[in-house]
Design a protein that fits this description.
This protein has 492 residues and is α/β, with parallel strands linked by helices. It folds into 2 domains: 268 residues, 3-Layer(aba) Sandwich (Aldehyde Dehydrogenase, Chain A, domain 1), CATH 3.40.605; 184 residues, Aldehyde Dehydrogenase, Chain A, domain 2. The longest helix is centred in the first third of the chain and has 21 residues. Bound molecules: nicotinamide-adenine-dinucleotide. The site of nicotinamide-adenine-dinucleotide has 32 residues, from helix 7 and helix 8.
Length: 492
């Protein structure tokens, strides 16, 4: 049985004390491996290795760092199937989705490799003669990455690739549920010749290892993705230390279906966004806002198709809905469904799936409530499971209001054939991502990823926006006039 170890300064080793945690397959409860659990001393060791590597890594020209990323992306591509199978076994997501996630990491690698030859600054005219002015990006220093289990390689790549391409060195703590993916990812970095100390992998719990990272004085920036509750703690601790911090947190994403919509297309989008990854995506749809004129048709078609979804072990190519990550997640979903029975009308689902064919895995029936009030708990709180709340509305204006009536601000979608509604929705939906005639999931890596309000704190992952997280701007003025020239004074 494999034991996943830390990777510090180019060496694989177990944490002191040999404390371990079992890694379980959510599809059947089978023990897949053990993972070492680190304490603050391992974090200190990893930070020291990152600091030591920083002085040479930041001097490597960015195009050269980009070329290394290109090789890493090629390796990921070569190992796509192997990584996808591992991902399904650890995380449970159906194999097709696992392949999609690995592809996202490949895309991010190639994209950031190219950025190594851009990393644009601005060259601007100086306001005084014989003077040049320009800006350039510099690495922040030691980057602490804290990532969740639901996209163990995609989210890691959104952070890791821009961090190292821009010259930072990294201490990474992945989620304890998916350490195998982190191990496989770092082994590829190692095989491709990433110098020791540039990326250090530390396994452990959030409460111990994660906290030790956030509190470590030599980690200059924390890039975190996870729940709002954890994000608040990370922000408070990082803020007290004036540490740069980028947070990507929860969502309560809505799909609006207007009366002009192609209802069959909307049903496709709702099923994919609501029940894909068993609703365990930060961008998963959990609210459906429907115009009353098409409510009956939408509900009838949605329930019919939901009941046909194939639920089971994600290694089966035909499976559309896989298991929930763990028993705790399953209990949380069922708790909300119990609340939902008081708050709306249950149309389908609502049960933990326990019969023998589910082999003791953590399965939950795709569940739909209707006639839910916008203020209901199931329409406001993140459930992180296959549960949809349908909220009927009488107008487009009301739909927009309900869409924006959320503490979160990650993703919105609208199905309509009315071009005026499309552009109004683009302007007025107050989320970081908006889709038209598509569900709430499906981001591409070359645009910024993240949200407004309590979903984030103003930063974005992926795209060139991620460069803003991992670099500081330096503005440079070169005066070759041979005399003192005072800006704003000598030229006015
Ligand atoms: P989580 O907050 O429990 O854990 C995320 C990471 O933080 C893990 O590595 C965990 O070990 C660590 N952690 C936990 N407590 C910590 C602490 N006190 N200090 C430092 N680190 C700590 O989240 P999760 O259950 O793994 O992931 C699901 C959540 O992530 C959902 O809320 C989902 O919406 C969110 N998410 C957001 C995005 C996004 O980009 N907005 C993407 C994916 C997931």
């Amino acid at each position: 049985m494999p034991v996943y170890h830390n990777y510090v300064d180019g060496k694989w080793k177990e944490a002191v004390g040999a404390r371990r945690r079992k890694v379980l397959n959510p599809a059947n409860g089978q023990v897949l491996a053990n993972v070492t659990l680190s304490s603050a001393s391992e974090v200190t060791e990893a930070v020291a290795a990152a600091k030591n590597a920083y002085s040479s890594w930041e001097k490597v020209p960015a195009p050269e760092r980009g070329e290394l990323l290109f090789e890493i992306a090629q390796q990921l591509k070569q190992k796509k199937e192997e990584l996808s199978q591992l991902l399904t076994s650890e995380n449970g997501k159906p194999i097709q989705e696992a392949r999609g996630e690995v592809q996202e990491a490949i895309d991010m690698g190639f994209y950031m490799a190219g950025e190594g030859r851009r990393l644009f600054g601005q060259a601007v005219p100086a306001e005084l003669p014989n003077k040049q002015a320009f800006s350039m990006r510099c690495p922040v220093g030691i980057a602490g990455l804290i990532t969740p289990w639901n996209f163990p390689i995609a989210i890691a790549s959104w952070k890791m690739f821009p961090a190292i391409m821009t010259g930072n060195t990294v201490v990474w703590k992945p989620a304890v549920e998916t350490p195998g993916m982190a191990d496989a990812f770092v082994r590829i970095l190692e095989e491709c010749g990433l110098p020791p100390g540039v990326v250090n992998l530390i396994h452990g719990t959030g409460e111990e290892t994660g906290v030790a990272m956030v509190e470590h004085p030599d980690i200059d920036i924390i890039s975190f993705t996870g729940s709002e509750e954890t994000g608040r703690q990370v922000a408070a601790k990082a803020g007290a230390r004036l540490k740069k911090v980028s947070l990507e947190m929860g969502g309560k994403n809505a799909i609006t279906v207007m009366d002009s919509a192609d209802i069959d297309l909307a049903v496709d989008g709702i099923l994919w966004s609501g029940f894909g990854t068993s609703g365990q995506r930060c961008t998963a749809a959990s609210r459906v806002i429907v115009h009353r004129r098409v409510q009956d048709e939408l509900e009838r078609k949605l329930v019919e198709r939901t009941k046909q979804l194939k639920i089971g072990n994600g290694t089966d190519e035909a499976v559309e809905v896989g298991p929930i990550i763990n028993k705790k997640g399953l209990e949380k979903i069922h708790h909300y469904v119990t609340i939902g029975k008081e708050e709306g009308k249950l149309l389908c689902g609502g049960q933990v799936l326990r019969d023998a064919s589910y082999q003791g895995g953590n399965y939950y029936e795709p569940t739909i409530f209707t006639n839910v009030q916008p203020e209901a708990r199931i329409a406001q709180e993140e459930i992180f499971g296959p549960v949809l709340s349908i909220i009927p509305v009488d107008s487009f204006t009301e739909a927009l209001k309900v869409n924006n009536n959320s503490a979160f601000g990650l993703s919105s979608s609208i199905f309509t054939m009315n071009v005026n509604e499309v552009f109004q929705a683009l302007n007025e939906m107050d989320t970081g991502i908006v889709y038209v005639n598509a569900g709430t999931t499906g981001a591409e890596i070359h645009l910024p990823f993240g949200g407004t309000k309590t979903t984030g704190n103003g930063h974005r992952d992926s795209g060139t926006a991620s460069l803003d997280v991992f670099t500081e701007w330096k503005s440079v003025y070169v005066d070759y006039s041979g005399k003192l020239q005072r800006a704003q004074i000598d030229n006015n």
